[in-house]
Specification:
GO terms for molecular function: peptidyl-prolyl cis-trans isomerase activity. The chain is of the alpha+beta class. Helix content is 44%, strand content 18%.
């Protein structure tokens, strides 16, 4: 077998592989000899089939198997022998001429194919001890814990029917029908809907107009959907709602005690406070870690400058760009609405793609040199998390990960990355700084990639792309997929 390098330009490589016809024929003959004693052909006793006849009947099919196996297996071996790692699956090209292909299968011509790929650049790891980050920490006081418990307790709060007008905090049971320009719209109707006034579950202006109504009242209210409302056909539109009040109920008092804890499935108020405090700490800790991670990535981005594989960058850019356009379409907006142009946005998101590919390669190299491993147990836990997100579709999800090439890698990659960040936190200087929860959760105006502020859509449409890199400082809220049109930020 001859391996000839025909292109070495930057990270691009092209290899020509030539396997002489005599070598291909020799391998074919070995396989035919191996099966000769087991082949059953009418007119011949087992093991007595003439080799020439066996070759005539099965030679081409065996040669085709050899070609497929070579194309499948040899590229990996060739790259390993060359000490190279391909950034993506190498592209294999071979003759498309039918006559030439017949000669190869008949052992009359050399088998030639080419490999085209980009190598992963060599990365000279630098000393990480110079990286410094500030970790924001929030002191959680008892008042905040109790406030959170009272919010949770809303699910356990009881209501008693009352006579008279509905006040803020009361629960009203209503039928409603929404209309735009006098026409009812999809999702704008419900019956026996329960709404706690002041909960801000419905769009602005809706709940306020129900205050003062009593059971049996009917009223037509007018509201305007927010300009950024997810349903494009309703965004910014004025609508009317025909309201029929069926019941008004006043809330019972909620006290944080053992009785409340029991209603929530816990043994005591102390245990309830302990669990809620832990949840708050976990929430703040997650946000703080994202900010720390961003600081680390920003400094690694400054430390490492090298050419990135174009195919990886293009694949990353396409993922981001697809998300951008999907989110813009769902919101009914254009790049002009986001104070940019498609051309400018493309340029900025390609910079983001390049950064993410480069940092991904750096983190991979750091993790490999540090011996970071992702265990089978961690992979199983990640898979279970995926399954929990799609109740009722567990079988399909499992089949997807079992049968889809690269699917398992999508589970492994974020785990590996977080473990590399953990490793780096043990090498760099971390200074804790106590801040208020408002400061911790505030949107960071400098949170976008450097040089990408002109790409305005990224702030709204590419949250997923950012979050994977620690770019998003605060967790984004997602509305339920089937939320009724009258409801705003219910969650």
């Amino acid at each position: 077998m001859q391996v000839i390098e025909t292109l070495a330009e930057g990270l691009k490589r092209e290899i020509k592989v030539v396997i002489p016809a005599k070598d291909m024929e020799a391998q074919m003959n070995e396989r035919l000899e191996d099966v000769k004693g087991r082949v059953r052909i009418n007119g011949f006793r087992p093991g007595k089939v003439p080799f020439a006849h066996l070759k005539k009947m099965y030679g081409k099919s065996v040669m085709a198997e050899l070609v497929n196996e070579i194309v499948r297996d040899r590229p990996t071996a060739i790259l390993s022998e060359r000490g190279e790692k391909s950034a993506t699956q190498p592209e294999v090209a071979m003759t498309e001429d039918q006559a030439e292909a017949e000669k190869i299968l008949n052992g009359q011509a050399d088998f030639e194919f080419t490999l085209s790929y980009e190598v992963i650049p060599a990365i000279d790891l630098k000393d990480n001890s110079g990286i410094t980050v500030t970790r924001e920490v929030v002191d959680i006081d008892a008042k905040e814990v109790d406030e959170q418990i009272l919010k949770i307790a809303e699910s356990a709060r009881s209501y008693e029917t009352k006579k008279g007008k509905a006040a803020d905090g009361d629960r009203v049971t209503i039928d409603y029908l929404g209309k735009v320009d006098g026409e009812a719209f999809d999702g704008g109707k419900d019956e026996d809907a329960e709404l706690v006034l002041g909960s801000n579950r419905f769009i602005p202006g809706f709940e306020e107009q129900l205050v003062g109504l009593k059971a049996g009242d009917e009223k037509v209210i007018t509201v305007t959907f927010p300009a950024e409302y997810p349903a494009a056909n309703l965004a910014g539109k004025e609508a009317t709602f025909d309201i029929n009040v069926k019941e008004v109920a006043a809330p019972s008092e909620v006290e944080i005690n053992d009785e409340l804890a029991t209603k929530l499935g816990l043994e005591s108020a102390d245990k309830l406070r302990e669990i809620v405090r832990g949840q708050i700490e976990s929430q703040y800790g997650s946000v703080s870690r994202q900010k720390v991670k961003r600081q680390i990535l920003d400094q690694l981005d400054e430390m490492y400058k090298f050419e990135t594989p174009e195919r990886l960058v293009e694949a990353e850019f396409e993922n981001i760009w697809r998300q951008i356009n999907t989110d813009l379409a769902q919101s009914g907006k254009t790049f002009a609405d986001e104070d940019t142009t498609e051309e400018a946005a493309r340029e900025e998101y390609r910079k983001l793609a390049e950064r993410r590919v480069r940092l991904g390669l750096v983190l991979s190299e750091i993790g490999e040199k540090a011996g970071v491993q992702v265990t089978d147990e961690e992979m199983q836990q990640s898979l279970y998390q995926q399954l929990r997100q799609f109740p009722g579709q567990e079988k399909q999800i499992l089949e997807y990960f079992q049968k889809t090439p690269g699917a398992a890698a999508s589970l492994r990659a974020p785990i590996f990355e977080e473990k590399v960040v953990d490793h780096l936190l043990g090498e760099i200087k971390v200074t804790d700084k106590t801040v208020s929860k408002e400061d911790l959760l505030a949107d960071d105006e400098d949170g976008d990639d450097k040089g990408s502020k002109k790409a305005a859509p990224k702030k709204k449409a590419a949250a997923k792309a950012e979050a994977q890199e620690g770019e998003d400082a605060a967790p984004k809220k997602k509305a339920p997929a089937k939320k009724k049109a009258a409801e705003g930020d219910a969650e």
